[in-house]
Design a protein that fits this description.
Length: 537
């Protein structure tokens, strides 16, 4: 195994000498309390992407390979959820919050997480993700799943698991405990959550060359009341749309392997309507509370809206979202337009936005607003993906089952690109860049160890007399400014040694030789808000 230290700047802080002398009776010139980012980058030469490793935490996020132009980026943190698949290409499949300059903020529980993001539940800022439950809990890598949506508060307490139970008919040989699918988990202003759910059903497939009682997936839209966990709205594509409108090739099906003709992958509540996206029909529908289709747009012929402008046509698309405009008779509608369904295809996936006139009128067809893609390093994503506007006018694209993330400027110029696994390996269903502020309910984590000389980046300023080092991290904390370091002979005689600046996810600092016990306190807004355990050396 090859490891090397990141080459981040070494920082030294002058600790008040009197304090030092008083507390540990130092006689030598150990007047500086040095600190550095102690992240290790690990690459063992396999197809596991280079990852970040720490001493005080066993979290191992990917080390993003980043290109940037230096132009303004939106503020916020990246939310990357990951799925497993054969050869995930990453050391650890887990949700991660990482800054756009590669500093880990939070590593979540190991396991698949889909649609990992920040959102508001009422006035509360929370993080949410889907995770599989039971034996039928496939991840998004195979296109669908059955599980629950977890809601964590801004101290990382799991405050709710949304377990929808619809008594779905399941593919032969599988069972489910919670029925929400991987694709959507949006909390609405009405204290409800929108989820997709994949039911197994039968349909007349004769117009596709199949039997009159063929097995299909009915990917339904569900709105769940978060107080009662009961569905308040259910919409079944099978009850409203002809199966033979699909672009997905029918090659036979049975109850073990139902035909996924519609493949619902996004739902947005818009007023009292629902915007529902079908990957396999290349269509997006607006449905009212009675379940009637009010209008639809088709990625090739435009549907109710008239002809799609050049370069605006789309297929196999994800994440349909209405963006309001200032006038009431038009909206912007955006998609992550995969535009391919086979990993062998090479056309670029795009961030597509159309300006639509409402109500639809073929005489005023859609106008192309964006068809963003990286012209220099195009990415072709056959599945999953996201396209979201950012506060400063930039947009963010997550490339789904291709391990890339790109931030575009307002005119479609690529300002920041990252890769987090080898091509065709790692995947994140969507990627968000969002504001998030959190103070964990648990303590900062502290480890004290003796530095081996070759890996000791603090030796120049710590002096050669002590090789004792502390390593502190606080998984998920966003607002730590510094750590106060306490040392002593015993837990009851701890005295402050001074402060160290926080350096990245994990801060390494030098400790005087002979130190018996150590503790650190995380400083936020100038005061210690939480202390680590007391560590005996
Ligand atoms: C590299 O790390 C991966 C993941 O920990 C492990 O499965 C693999 O065996 C390692 N390969 C080598 C050559 O050490
Ligand atoms: C669940 O569905 C099965 C088959 O459709 C049915 O026999 C059963 O009564 C249902 N159970 C509940 C609790 O609705
Ligand atoms: C699921 O499909 C079965 C038929 O296979 C049907 O009886 C049931 O009502 C469906 N459930 C929902 C929630 O649509
Ligand atoms: C598609 O299915 C509908 C409803 O069953 C039927 O009316 C229509 O003729 C079919 N279209 C084709 C091309 O077979
Ligand atoms: C079910 O259908 C799939 C797809 O057509 C096929 O590959 C598989 O062999 C079938 N399985 C059974 C048990 O018939
Ligand atoms: C757009 O505006 C309408 C009417 O004001 C509102 O109901 C809806 O929630 C808004 N939608 C979005 C996506 O902002
Ligand atoms: C857009 O339409 C053109 C012309 O019909 C076609 O060649 C192209 O494949 C379409 N692109 C997408 C992404 O559907
Ligand atoms: C970054 O730029 C290099 C060329 O300098 C290119 O090979 C690589 O693919 C780019 N990475 C991303 C994530 O776009």
């Amino acid at each position: 195994m090859r490891t090397w230290s990141s080459s981040l700047a070494l920082g030294c802080l002058i600790a008040p000498i009197p304090t030092l002398a008083r507390t540990i009776g130092a006689r030598k010139t150990e007047s500086t309390l040095c600190a550095t980012d102690s992240r290790q980058l690990v690459n063992n030469g396999s197809d596991i992407w280079t990852y970040q490793a720490y001493k005080s935490s066993n979290v191992t996020p990917p080390y993003l390979s980043i290109n940037r132009t230096g132009e303004d980026l939106a503020s916020g943190l990246l939310f990357i959820g990951q799925e497993d698949s054969e050869g995930s290409g990453v050391e650890s499949v887990a949700p991660f919050i990482i800054s756009d300059d590669n500093e880990l903020v939070w590593g979540g529980p190991t396991g698949e997480s889909s649609n990992f993001r920040q959102q508001y539940w009422g006035k509360k800022s929370v993080i949410t993700f889907w995770t599989g439950t039971g034996e039928a809990a496939y991840g998004a890598d195979v296109g669908r799943g059955w599980g629950e949506v977890q809601i964590y508060d801004d101290s990382y307490k799991l405050i709710k698991s949304v377990c929808l139970q619809l008594n779905l008919t399941m593919p032969t040989g599988t069972t489910t405990t919670c029925d929400a699918d991987v694709h959507e988990s949006t909390i609405t202003e009405d204290n409800t959550m929108l989820v997709t759910a994949y039911n197994t059903s039968q349909a007349d497939l004769t117009s596709l060359g199949g039997p009159s009682d063929g097995w299909v997936y009915d990917s339904i839209a569900v709105e769940i009341d978060l107080r009662t966990n009961e569905p308040v709205f259910i919409w079944s594509p099978l009850a409203h749309v002809d199966v033979n409108l699909t672009h997905y090739a029918y090659t036979g099906s049975n109850q073990t392997d139902p035909f996924d003709w519609f493949h619902m992958n996004s739902i947005q509540k818009w007023g009292d309507h629902y915007l529902i996206n079908s990957r396999h029909l290349w269509r997006t529908f607006l449905v009212n509370r009675q379940g009637e289709i009010v209008w639809y747009i088709d990625g090739q012929d435009g549907g109710d809206f008239g002809s799609i402008p050049t370069n605006g046509n789309f297929s196999w698309q994800h994440m349909a979202r209405i963006r309001n405009t200032s006038t009431s008779n038009e909206v912007l509608l955006s998609w992550f337009a995969n535009d391919l369904d086979a990993t062998t295809a090479t056309n670029p996936s795009k961030g597509t936005t159309l300006r639509l006139t409402l109500p639809p009128n073929a005489k005023n067809p859609p106008i192309l607003e964006t068809d963003f893609y990286d012209h220099e390093y195009p990415v072709s994503s056959a599945a999953e993906g996201s396209f979201t506007p950012l506060d400063n006018g930039n947009t963010l694209m997550g490339y789904g089952d291709e391990p890339y993330i790109k931030e575009y400027g307002p005119s479609g110029d690529v300002r920041w690109s990252a890769q987090y696994a080898d091509k065709n390996l790692g995947q994140s269903y969507r990627v968000y860049k969002q504001e998030w502020s959190a103070t964990p309910y648990y303590r900062p984590s502290l480890v004290v160890a003796t530095a081996s000389s070759e890996a000791d980046t603090l030796s120049q300023c710590a002096g050669t007399s002590s090789t004792l080092r502390g390593y502190v991290s606080w998984n998920g904390a966003t607002d730590v400014e510094k750590y106060e370091v306490y040392v002593g002979e015993s837990a009851s005689s701890l005295k402050s040694l001074g402060e160290i600046e926080k350096k990245g996810f994990e801060t390494e600092f030098s400790l005087p030789a002979g130190t018996k016990v150590v503790q650190v306190g995380a400083v936020q807004s100038g005061r210690v808000v939480r202390k680590s355990d007391v560590v005996r050396v």
